Protein backbone atom coordinates (compact mmCIF):
# COMPACT_ATOMS: atom_id res chain seq x y z
CA UNK A 1 0.00 0.00 0.00
CA UNK A 2 2.81 2.37 0.93
CA UNK A 3 4.70 1.51 -2.29
CA UNK A 4 1.59 2.19 -4.37
CA UNK A 5 1.08 5.54 -2.65
CA UNK A 6 4.72 6.50 -3.24
CA UNK A 7 4.52 5.55 -6.91
CA UNK A 8 1.32 7.55 -7.26
CA UNK A 9 2.92 10.57 -5.59
CA UNK A 10 5.93 10.28 -7.88
CA UNK A 11 3.70 10.23 -10.97
CA UNK A 12 1.75 13.25 -9.73
CA UNK A 13 4.99 15.09 -8.96
CA UNK A 14 6.38 14.36 -12.42
CA UNK A 15 3.14 15.56 -13.98
CA UNK A 16 3.29 18.74 -11.91
CA UNK A 17 6.92 19.31 -12.92
CA UNK A 18 5.98 18.83 -16.57
CA UNK A 19 3.13 21.30 -16.17
CA UNK A 20 5.40 23.86 -14.53
CA UNK A 21 7.99 23.41 -17.28
CA UNK A 22 5.29 24.05 -19.88
CA UNK A 23 4.11 27.16 -18.03
CA UNK A 24 7.70 28.36 -17.71
CA UNK A 25 8.27 27.88 -21.45
CA UNK A 26 5.09 29.82 -22.21
CA UNK A 27 6.14 32.60 -19.82
CA UNK A 28 9.58 32.79 -21.46
CA UNK A 29 7.96 32.97 -24.89
CA UNK A 30 5.66 35.76 -23.72
CA UNK A 31 8.59 37.64 -22.17
CA UNK A 32 10.63 37.23 -25.35
CA UNK A 33 7.73 38.61 -27.38
CA UNK A 34 7.50 41.62 -25.07
CA UNK A 35 11.26 42.18 -25.26
CA UNK A 36 11.21 41.98 -29.04
CA UNK A 37 8.35 44.45 -29.32
CA UNK A 38 10.04 46.79 -26.85
CA UNK A 39 13.29 46.69 -28.82
CA UNK A 40 11.52 47.21 -32.13
CA UNK A 41 9.02 49.84 -30.98
CA UNK A 42 10.95 52.11 -28.64
CA UNK A 43 9.01 55.26 -29.53
CA UNK A 44 6.91 56.76 -26.75
CA UNK A 45 3.81 56.47 -28.95
CA UNK A 46 3.94 52.69 -29.32
CA UNK A 47 1.47 50.82 -27.17
CA UNK A 48 -0.73 53.86 -26.53
CA UNK A 49 -4.49 53.39 -26.81
CA UNK A 50 -6.39 50.25 -25.98
CA UNK A 51 -7.99 49.71 -29.40
CA UNK A 52 -10.19 46.67 -29.96
CA UNK A 53 -9.10 43.14 -29.08
CA UNK A 54 -10.83 40.14 -30.68
CA UNK A 55 -10.08 36.48 -29.97
CA UNK A 56 -10.97 33.95 -32.67
CA UNK A 57 -12.04 30.31 -32.27
CA UNK A 58 -8.48 29.03 -32.69
CA UNK A 59 -7.13 31.16 -29.85
CA UNK A 60 -5.64 33.85 -32.05
CA UNK A 61 -5.74 37.44 -30.80
CA UNK A 62 -6.45 40.32 -33.19
CA UNK A 63 -5.82 43.88 -32.04
CA UNK A 64 -7.22 46.80 -34.04
CA UNK A 65 -6.18 50.38 -33.36
CA UNK A 66 -4.76 53.51 -34.87
CA UNK A 67 -4.10 57.18 -34.35
CA UNK A 68 -5.20 60.66 -35.39
CA UNK A 69 -2.61 63.44 -35.28
CA UNK A 70 -2.98 67.19 -35.82
CA UNK A 71 0.04 69.41 -36.48
CA UNK A 72 0.67 73.14 -36.02
CA UNK A 73 3.72 74.75 -37.67
CA UNK A 74 5.12 78.24 -37.26
CA UNK A 75 8.17 79.18 -39.34
CA UNK A 76 10.25 82.36 -39.00
CA UNK A 77 11.21 82.50 -42.66
CA UNK A 78 9.70 84.70 -45.39
CA UNK A 79 7.81 83.07 -48.22
CA UNK A 80 6.90 80.14 -46.04
CA UNK A 81 3.59 79.59 -47.78
CA UNK A 82 0.71 77.48 -46.52
CA UNK A 83 2.27 74.03 -46.82
CA UNK A 84 2.38 72.10 -43.52
CA UNK A 85 6.16 71.84 -43.67
CA UNK A 86 6.54 75.62 -44.10
CA UNK A 87 4.30 77.33 -41.53
CA UNK A 88 4.33 80.83 -43.00
CA UNK A 89 1.69 83.57 -42.61
CA UNK A 90 1.47 83.23 -38.83
CA UNK A 91 1.38 79.47 -38.69
CA UNK A 92 -0.43 76.55 -40.30
CA UNK A 93 -2.62 73.95 -38.57
CA UNK A 94 -3.59 70.80 -40.45
CA UNK A 95 -4.56 67.18 -40.02
CA UNK A 96 -1.22 65.41 -39.94
CA UNK A 97 -2.06 61.72 -40.03
CA UNK A 98 -4.84 59.22 -39.76
CA UNK A 99 -3.54 55.70 -39.39
CA UNK A 100 -5.07 52.25 -39.03
CA UNK A 101 -3.21 49.38 -37.29
CA UNK A 102 -3.79 45.62 -36.98
CA UNK A 103 -1.73 43.11 -34.99
CA UNK A 104 -2.37 39.37 -34.85
CA UNK A 105 -0.86 36.51 -32.81
CA UNK A 106 -1.84 32.85 -32.82
CA UNK A 107 0.69 30.54 -31.22
CA UNK A 108 3.90 30.98 -33.21
CA UNK A 109 2.16 32.92 -36.01
CA UNK A 110 2.40 36.72 -36.14
CA UNK A 111 1.14 39.47 -38.42
CA UNK A 112 1.28 43.26 -38.43
CA UNK A 113 -0.20 45.91 -40.70
CA UNK A 114 -0.45 49.70 -40.77
CA UNK A 115 -1.97 52.02 -43.38
CA UNK A 116 -1.64 55.82 -43.23
CA UNK A 117 -3.63 58.70 -44.73
CA UNK A 118 -2.25 62.21 -45.19
CA UNK A 119 -3.62 65.26 -46.97
CA UNK A 120 -3.60 64.32 -50.67
CA UNK A 121 -1.76 60.99 -50.41
CA UNK A 122 -1.79 57.68 -48.54
CA UNK A 123 0.32 54.54 -48.33
CA UNK A 124 0.95 51.21 -46.67
CA UNK A 125 3.43 51.71 -43.84
CA UNK A 126 3.77 48.11 -42.60
CA UNK A 127 2.46 44.76 -43.80
CA UNK A 128 4.12 41.46 -42.85
CA UNK A 129 3.43 37.89 -41.78
CA UNK A 130 5.70 36.24 -39.25
CA UNK A 131 6.56 32.99 -37.52
CA UNK A 132 8.22 32.59 -34.13
CA UNK A 133 10.76 29.78 -34.51
CA UNK A 134 11.58 29.65 -30.78
CA UNK A 135 11.34 31.74 -27.63
CA UNK A 136 13.85 34.32 -28.84
CA UNK A 137 13.64 34.24 -32.65
CA UNK A 138 11.14 35.04 -35.37
CA UNK A 139 10.87 35.63 -39.13
CA UNK A 140 8.98 38.46 -40.86
CA UNK A 141 7.98 38.34 -44.55
CA UNK A 142 6.50 41.35 -46.33
CA UNK A 143 6.89 45.09 -45.91
CA UNK A 144 8.94 45.42 -42.74
CA UNK A 145 11.52 47.74 -41.20
CA UNK A 146 15.11 47.41 -42.40
CA UNK A 147 17.36 46.65 -39.39
CA UNK A 148 19.82 49.53 -39.30
CA UNK A 149 20.93 51.78 -36.45
CA UNK A 150 20.43 51.94 -32.71
CA UNK A 151 16.66 51.45 -32.91
CA UNK A 152 13.72 51.76 -35.26
CA UNK A 153 14.07 55.57 -35.25
CA UNK A 154 17.82 55.81 -34.89
CA UNK A 155 18.66 57.51 -31.58
CA UNK A 156 15.93 60.15 -31.85
CA UNK A 157 13.09 60.85 -29.39
CA UNK A 158 11.58 63.78 -31.33
CA UNK A 159 8.72 64.06 -33.80
CA UNK A 160 11.22 64.99 -36.53
CA UNK A 161 13.66 62.07 -36.00
CA UNK A 162 17.27 62.85 -36.90
CA UNK A 163 18.97 63.21 -40.29
CA UNK A 164 19.39 59.42 -40.61
CA UNK A 165 15.70 59.19 -41.48
CA UNK A 166 15.98 61.69 -44.35
CA UNK A 167 18.74 59.72 -46.07
CA UNK A 168 16.89 56.39 -45.73
CA UNK A 169 18.84 55.00 -42.77
CA UNK A 170 16.17 55.04 -40.04
CA UNK A 171 12.60 53.73 -39.95
CA UNK A 172 13.04 52.50 -43.53
CA UNK A 173 10.32 50.09 -44.65
CA UNK A 174 11.20 47.69 -47.49
CA UNK A 175 9.76 44.56 -49.07
CA UNK A 176 11.53 41.31 -48.18
CA UNK A 177 12.30 38.87 -45.38
CA UNK A 178 13.91 39.52 -41.96
CA UNK A 179 15.18 37.13 -39.28
CA UNK A 180 15.49 38.35 -35.69
CA UNK A 181 17.15 36.34 -32.93
CA UNK A 182 18.51 36.88 -29.42
CA UNK A 183 21.47 34.88 -28.08
CA UNK A 184 22.40 35.79 -24.54
CA UNK A 185 23.24 39.49 -24.40
CA UNK A 186 23.37 39.75 -28.19
CA UNK A 187 20.54 40.45 -30.62
CA UNK A 188 21.05 39.80 -34.33
CA UNK A 189 19.02 40.82 -37.37
CA UNK A 190 19.53 39.49 -40.88
CA UNK A 191 17.41 40.70 -43.80
CA UNK A 192 17.04 40.56 -47.57
CA UNK A 193 14.86 43.07 -49.42
CA UNK A 194 14.01 42.49 -53.06
CA UNK A 195 12.85 46.09 -53.46
CA UNK A 196 11.84 49.23 -51.59
CA UNK A 197 8.28 49.83 -50.41
CA UNK A 198 7.06 51.21 -53.73
CA UNK A 199 4.76 54.04 -54.73
CA UNK A 200 1.17 54.17 -53.42
CA UNK A 201 -1.49 56.86 -53.90
CA UNK A 202 -0.43 60.46 -54.44
CA UNK A 203 0.42 63.11 -57.01
CA UNK A 204 3.94 61.85 -57.73
CA UNK A 205 4.97 58.81 -59.76
CA UNK A 206 7.46 57.36 -57.27
CA UNK A 207 7.43 59.32 -53.99
CA UNK A 208 4.05 58.50 -52.40
CA UNK A 209 5.62 56.37 -49.69
CA UNK A 210 6.48 56.59 -45.99
CA UNK A 211 10.25 56.21 -45.81
CA UNK A 212 12.98 57.79 -47.91
CA UNK A 213 14.25 55.66 -50.81
CA UNK A 214 16.22 56.32 -53.97
CA UNK A 215 13.57 56.90 -56.69
CA UNK A 216 13.41 57.54 -60.44
CA UNK A 217 10.71 60.19 -60.09
CA UNK A 218 10.69 61.35 -63.71
CA UNK A 219 11.31 57.91 -65.14
CA UNK A 220 15.06 58.60 -65.25
CA UNK A 221 17.07 57.68 -62.18
CA UNK A 222 17.49 54.71 -59.88
CA UNK A 223 15.42 52.27 -57.83
CA UNK A 224 16.63 50.15 -54.91
CA UNK A 225 16.91 46.38 -55.46
CA UNK A 226 18.42 43.32 -53.75
CA UNK A 227 19.39 44.92 -50.46
CA UNK A 228 20.87 42.95 -47.55
CA UNK A 229 21.09 44.14 -43.95
CA UNK A 230 22.90 42.92 -40.86
CA UNK A 231 22.74 44.37 -37.36
CA UNK A 232 24.27 43.20 -34.06
CA UNK A 233 23.31 44.75 -30.72
CA UNK A 234 24.68 43.89 -27.28
CA UNK A 235 22.72 44.70 -24.13
CA UNK A 236 24.65 45.50 -20.96
CA UNK A 237 23.97 46.51 -17.35
CA UNK A 238 26.26 47.75 -14.58
CA UNK A 239 26.09 47.56 -10.80
CA UNK A 240 25.80 51.36 -10.69
CA UNK A 241 22.33 51.32 -12.26
CA UNK A 242 23.49 52.04 -15.79
CA UNK A 243 22.34 50.00 -18.77
CA UNK A 244 22.08 50.21 -22.53
CA UNK A 245 23.00 48.70 -25.87
CA UNK A 246 25.77 49.16 -28.38
CA UNK A 247 26.27 47.67 -31.80
CA UNK A 248 26.99 47.92 -35.50
CA UNK A 249 24.89 47.88 -38.68
CA UNK A 250 25.74 47.13 -42.30
CA UNK A 251 23.69 47.58 -45.48
CA UNK A 252 24.51 46.62 -49.09
CA UNK A 253 22.36 46.81 -52.19
CA UNK A 254 21.92 47.41 -55.91
CA UNK A 255 20.55 50.44 -57.75
CA UNK A 256 18.53 49.61 -60.85
CA UNK A 257 19.22 52.29 -63.48
CA UNK A 258 16.13 53.50 -65.34
CA UNK A 259 15.69 55.68 -68.41
CA UNK A 260 18.88 54.46 -70.05
CA UNK A 261 21.13 54.85 -66.99
CA UNK A 262 23.58 52.15 -66.02
CA UNK A 263 23.02 50.26 -62.77
CA UNK A 264 24.72 51.40 -59.59
CA UNK A 265 25.11 50.18 -56.03
CA UNK A 266 24.85 51.46 -52.48
CA UNK A 267 26.19 50.61 -49.05
CA UNK A 268 26.12 52.00 -45.52
CA UNK A 269 27.74 51.21 -42.19
CA UNK A 270 27.04 52.47 -38.70
CA UNK A 271 28.24 52.26 -35.09
CA UNK A 272 25.74 53.21 -32.41
CA UNK A 273 25.02 53.13 -28.68
CA UNK A 274 22.20 53.99 -26.28
CA UNK A 275 22.94 54.45 -22.56
CA UNK A 276 20.41 54.80 -19.74
CA UNK A 277 21.59 56.42 -16.49
CA UNK A 278 18.62 56.62 -14.19
CA UNK A 279 16.04 58.71 -16.04
CA UNK A 280 18.64 60.04 -18.47
CA UNK A 281 19.00 58.56 -21.95
CA UNK A 282 21.97 59.24 -24.22
CA UNK A 283 21.95 58.04 -27.81
CA UNK A 284 24.86 58.35 -30.23
CA UNK A 285 25.25 57.12 -33.79
CA UNK A 286 27.81 57.64 -36.54
CA UNK A 287 27.08 56.34 -40.03
CA UNK A 288 28.53 56.56 -43.50
CA UNK A 289 26.64 55.83 -46.71
CA UNK A 290 27.63 55.85 -50.36
CA UNK A 291 25.68 55.49 -53.60
CA UNK A 292 27.99 54.54 -56.46
CA UNK A 293 27.31 55.34 -60.11
CA UNK A 294 24.82 58.17 -59.50
CA UNK A 295 27.01 61.30 -59.46
CA UNK A 296 27.33 63.59 -56.45
CA UNK A 297 23.56 63.87 -55.85
CA UNK A 298 20.51 61.76 -56.65
CA UNK A 299 16.76 61.80 -56.01
CA UNK A 300 15.14 60.39 -52.88
CA UNK A 301 11.40 60.37 -52.37
CA UNK A 302 8.91 60.18 -49.49
CA UNK A 303 5.67 61.84 -48.37
CA UNK A 304 4.71 62.40 -52.02
CA UNK A 305 7.67 64.75 -52.49
CA UNK A 306 11.00 64.08 -54.29
CA UNK A 307 14.19 65.68 -52.90
CA UNK A 308 17.76 65.99 -54.10
CA UNK A 309 20.09 64.17 -51.68
CA UNK A 310 23.85 63.80 -51.42
CA UNK A 311 25.14 60.52 -52.86
CA UNK A 312 27.68 60.03 -50.07
CA UNK A 313 28.02 61.45 -46.58
CA UNK A 314 28.86 60.91 -42.93
CA UNK A 315 25.86 61.17 -40.61
CA UNK A 316 26.63 61.87 -36.92
CA UNK A 317 23.71 62.06 -34.49
CA UNK A 318 23.31 62.57 -30.75
CA UNK A 319 20.20 62.64 -28.56
CA UNK A 320 19.98 63.49 -24.84
CA UNK A 321 16.67 63.15 -22.98
CA UNK A 322 15.30 62.91 -19.45
CA UNK A 323 12.10 61.10 -18.44
CA UNK A 324 10.05 62.95 -15.80
CA UNK A 325 7.41 60.85 -14.04
CA UNK A 326 4.43 63.11 -13.34
CA UNK A 327 1.81 60.58 -12.29
CA UNK A 328 1.16 62.67 -9.17
CA UNK A 329 -0.52 65.07 -11.63
CA UNK A 330 -3.99 64.00 -12.74
CA UNK A 331 -3.63 65.58 -16.16
CA UNK A 332 -0.15 64.28 -17.09
CA UNK A 333 1.51 60.86 -16.91
CA UNK A 334 5.02 61.80 -17.96
CA UNK A 335 7.10 64.20 -19.98
CA UNK A 336 10.44 63.79 -21.71
CA UNK A 337 12.49 66.90 -22.61
CA UNK A 338 15.25 66.28 -25.16
CA UNK A 339 18.02 67.87 -27.16
CA UNK A 340 19.15 66.40 -30.49
CA UNK A 341 21.77 67.25 -33.09
CA UNK A 342 22.49 65.53 -36.38
CA UNK A 343 24.16 66.40 -39.65
CA UNK A 344 24.76 65.16 -43.18
CA UNK A 345 28.46 65.87 -43.69
CA UNK A 346 29.16 65.77 -47.44
CA UNK A 347 32.74 65.19 -48.65
CA UNK A 348 32.07 66.18 -52.29
CA UNK A 349 32.97 69.72 -53.38
CA UNK A 350 30.06 72.05 -54.06
CA UNK A 351 27.74 70.42 -51.52
CA UNK A 352 27.01 72.28 -48.29
CA UNK A 353 26.41 70.17 -45.17
CA UNK A 354 22.87 69.73 -43.85
CA UNK A 355 22.54 70.28 -40.09
CA UNK A 356 19.55 69.84 -37.80
CA UNK A 357 19.07 70.83 -34.14
CA UNK A 358 16.00 70.07 -32.01
CA UNK A 359 14.95 71.31 -28.59
CA UNK A 360 11.74 69.61 -27.55
CA UNK A 361 9.53 67.85 -25.06
CA UNK A 362 7.14 64.92 -25.40
CA UNK A 363 4.06 64.86 -23.14
CA UNK A 364 2.08 61.68 -22.41
CA UNK A 365 -1.40 61.42 -20.91
CA UNK A 366 -3.42 58.25 -21.39
CA UNK A 367 -4.02 57.82 -25.14
CA UNK A 368 -2.62 61.30 -25.87
CA UNK A 369 0.96 61.95 -26.94
CA UNK A 370 2.06 65.51 -27.71
CA UNK A 371 5.36 66.72 -29.19
CA UNK A 372 6.50 70.33 -28.82
CA UNK A 373 9.64 70.96 -30.89
CA UNK A 374 11.70 74.06 -31.60
CA UNK A 375 14.02 73.20 -34.47
CA UNK A 376 16.90 74.97 -36.16
CA UNK A 377 18.16 73.77 -39.51
CA UNK A 378 20.65 74.58 -42.20
CA UNK A 379 19.69 71.95 -44.74
CA UNK A 380 16.59 69.95 -43.77
CA UNK A 381 13.75 70.07 -46.27
CA UNK A 382 11.08 70.48 -43.58
CA UNK A 383 12.55 73.82 -42.44
CA UNK A 384 13.01 76.80 -44.76
CA UNK A 385 11.03 79.02 -47.10
CA UNK A 386 13.25 79.54 -50.14
CA UNK A 387 12.08 78.38 -53.55
CA UNK A 388 12.78 76.05 -55.26
CA UNK A 389 12.25 73.38 -52.63
CA UNK A 390 13.91 69.99 -52.72
CA UNK A 391 17.63 70.86 -52.71
CA UNK A 392 18.55 71.19 -49.02
CA UNK A 393 19.62 67.59 -48.52
CA UNK A 394 21.75 67.75 -51.66
CA UNK A 395 23.58 70.87 -52.73
CA UNK A 396 21.89 73.00 -50.03
CA UNK A 397 22.55 76.16 -52.09
CA UNK A 398 20.86 78.46 -49.54
CA UNK A 399 23.28 77.44 -46.75
CA UNK A 400 21.49 79.41 -44.03
CA UNK A 401 19.99 78.67 -40.62
CA UNK A 402 16.24 78.97 -40.11
CA UNK A 403 13.88 77.88 -37.35
CA UNK A 404 10.46 76.33 -36.91
CA UNK A 405 8.13 75.71 -33.97
CA UNK A 406 6.15 72.49 -34.30
CA UNK A 407 3.30 71.27 -32.08
CA UNK A 408 1.88 67.79 -32.78
CA UNK A 409 -1.19 66.38 -30.98
CA UNK A 410 -1.65 62.63 -31.27
CA UNK A 411 -4.67 60.62 -30.11
CA UNK A 412 -3.96 56.85 -30.12
CA UNK A 413 -6.87 54.42 -29.95
Automatic annotation (TrEMBL):
This is Porin. Residues 3-37 form a coiled coil. It comes from Pelagicoccus enzymogenes. Keywords: Coiled coil.
Amino acid sequence: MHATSSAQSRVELEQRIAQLETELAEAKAALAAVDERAAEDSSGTEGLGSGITVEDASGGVLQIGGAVRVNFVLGDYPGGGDAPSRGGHGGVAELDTFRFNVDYENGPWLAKGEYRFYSGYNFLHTGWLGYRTDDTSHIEVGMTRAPFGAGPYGVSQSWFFDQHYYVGLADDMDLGVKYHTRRGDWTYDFAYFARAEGNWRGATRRSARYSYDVVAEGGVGFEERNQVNFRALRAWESNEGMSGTYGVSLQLGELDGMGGLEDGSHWAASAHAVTDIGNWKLGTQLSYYELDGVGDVTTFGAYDFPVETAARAYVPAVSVSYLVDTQNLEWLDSLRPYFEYSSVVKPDDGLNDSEFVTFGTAFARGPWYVYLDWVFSNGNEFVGGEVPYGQRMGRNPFDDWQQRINLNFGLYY
